[in-house]
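Thread amino acids onto this structure.
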């Protein structure tokens, strides 16, 4: 039986994260933890964050649609400028106030419910 090393597991997890993030509809947001839970890795929200940091080298992954569990733009420092994440979200009609998504509960997209 072939074994999978830690690097392969991480790469596969990152790819799984990217596939979920690509499904987040414009104008909606989700959280690192919601993605981790959907992928069966509850408690691995930071690993989702690491995957999204690594995603900036790829095209077509809307990492800006992923925020923390309270709707805060905690990943904004990993974009091309400190205002880029907010600008991307605002272009999709999402209002941001003090680095937080306004109406977060209304705009929250839960992959566990949406991707049945």
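Threaded sequence (116 positions):
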């Amino acid at each position: 039986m072939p074994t999978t090393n830690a690097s392969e597991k991480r790469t596969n997890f990152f790819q799984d994260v990217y596939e979920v993030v690509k499904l987040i509809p414009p104008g909606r947001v989700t959280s690192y933890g919601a993605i981790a839970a959907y992928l069966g890795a509850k408690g691995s929200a930071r690993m989702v964050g690491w995957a999204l940091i690594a995603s900036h080298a790829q095209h077509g992954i809307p990492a800006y649609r992923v925020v923390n569990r309270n709707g805060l733009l905690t990943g904004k420092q990993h974009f091309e400028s400190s205002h880029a994440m907010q600008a991307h979200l605002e272009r999709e009609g999402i209002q941001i106030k003090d680095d937080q998504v306004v109406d977060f509960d209304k705009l929250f997209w839960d992959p566990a419910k949406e991707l049945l």
